């Protein structure tokens, strides 16, 4: 059914249809028995799929990656679709519009997306207020970043502000230094600035009555030497884990005509073309760390087989984003059913 509807949805500009569909889901949720309708369509049998990680109980291992519900506007609605957890953001201390539109593009031939959103969001305090009002008990991660106009020398302050703003309402944190759509952000993945940032956040975390798990989200384009540095830093700073991976800047091996890809321009590529890169990074980290670093996998997950591949590579949980758009609202139900088999 969704594959038929998708043909109509894909005729509308991606960012516009995203907001229209999510507002529609919010309307259904607000109707009498609306929650029951959503749950009936997307009900997930979680028996045998529960996970204990970071001191948290996940009803199943399939989550929604950051970028879909940036401002925590649809947490309760998304919980009805069976997700084991939802990651909001990336949020920044101050609201910002992001990059100019159009900034989100489909590559149907590759089951992929290119985005250069640029951390468009209403700010961490606004997201925190919405999370205070959520009714569901779904686990929520807070993906945090820096404002576009904040120089890298002052980035630590931005991450600190986001951490404090979301501390009471987020179950775990993800430090995003790997988006390709904020100028110079990926420079923060270099060894010394990254070590400084994570040490500072862990110091703040230790001062809290109940410290929260902090993870690091990394790019799929890192060399093995850079991954070795990441592993060393994560172990040294006692981070809870890694989210692997973000979008790629590579355009290799696409079926979409090169002229179309060139016309789209800059941005991070997600979906099926990232699948192998992401799995390779997960396997490398898991092997080199001797399984000591918990990993949340993201990148090219469309089916139960894709999810199982990530779990076999060393991940403990998985996240979908592009797969959710291409496969529809029953993706979690289908993946969980496949994993149970």
From TrEMBL:
Reactions mediated catalytically: (S)-dihydroorotate + a quinone = orotate + a quinol
Compartments in which it is found: Cell membrane; Membrane
One GO biological process term: 'de novo' UMP biosynthetic process
Domain Dihydroorotate dehydrogenase catalytic intervals: 49-340
Lineage top rank: taxon: Bacteria
Residues in the signal sequence: none
Keyword Oxidoreductase tagged: yes
Keywords recorded for this protein, A-Z: Cell membrane, Flavoprotein, FMN, Membrane, Oxidoreductase, Pyrimidine biosynthesis
Positions contributing to substrate binding: 70, 115-119, 176, 181, 246-247
Any single Gene Ontology cellular-component annotation: cytoplasm
Annotated family: Belongs to the dihydroorotate dehydrogenase family. Type 2 subfamily.
PANTHER family, per the entry: DIHYDROOROTATE DEHYDROGENASE (QUINONE), MITOCHONDRIAL, DIHYDROOROTATE DEHYDROGENASE (QUINONE), MITOCHONDRIAL-RELATED
Protein name per its UniProtKB record: Dihydroorotate dehydrogenase (quinone)
Organism for this UniProt entry: Chitinophaga flava
Lineage: Bacteria, Pseudomonadati, Bacteroidota, Chitinophagia, Chitinophagales
């Amino acid at each position: 059914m969704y594959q038929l509807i998708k043909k109509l949805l894909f005729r509308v500009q991606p960012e516009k249809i995203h907001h229209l569909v999510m507002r529609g889901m919010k309307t259904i949720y607000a109707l009498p028995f609306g929650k029951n309708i959503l749950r009936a369509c997307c009900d997930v049998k979680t028996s045998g799929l529960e996970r204990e990680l970071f001191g948290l109980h996940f009803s199943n291992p399939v989550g929604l990656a950051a970028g879909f519900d940036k401002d925590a506007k649809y947490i309760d609605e998304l919980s009805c679709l069976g997700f084991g957890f939802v990651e909001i953001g990336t949020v920044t201390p101050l609201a910002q519009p992001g990059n100019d539109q159009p900034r989100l593009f489909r590559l149907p031939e590759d089951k992929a997306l290119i985005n250069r959103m640029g951390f468009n969001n209403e700010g961490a305090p606004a997201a925190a207020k919405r999370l205070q009002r959520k009714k569901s008990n779904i686990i929520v991660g807070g993906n945090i970043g820096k404002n576009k106009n904040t120089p890298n020398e002052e980035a630590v302050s931005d991450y600190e502000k986001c951490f404090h703003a979301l501390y009471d309402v987020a179950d775990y944190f993800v430090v995003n230094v790997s988006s390709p759509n904020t100028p110079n952000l990926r420079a923060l993945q270099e060894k010394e600035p990254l070590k400084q940032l994570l040490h500072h956040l862990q110091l703040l975390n230790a001062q809290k009555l109940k410290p929260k798990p902090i993870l690091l989200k990394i790019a799929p384009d890192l060399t093995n030497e850079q991954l070795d540095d990441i592993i060393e830093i994560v172990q040294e700073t006692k981070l809870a884990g890694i989210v692997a991976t973000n979008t790629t800047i590579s355009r290799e091996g696409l079926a979409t005509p090169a002229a179309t890809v060139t016309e789209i321009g800059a941005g991070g590529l997600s979906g099926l073309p990232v699948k192998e890169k992401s799995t390779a990074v997960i396997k490398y980290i898991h092997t080199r760390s001797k399984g000591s670093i918990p990993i949340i996998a993201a990148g090219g997950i469309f089916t139960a087989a894709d999810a199982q591949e990530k779990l076999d590579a060393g991940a403990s949980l998985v996240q979908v984003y592009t797969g959710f758009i291409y496969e529809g609202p029953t993706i979690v139900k289908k993946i969980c059913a496949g994993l149970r088999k």
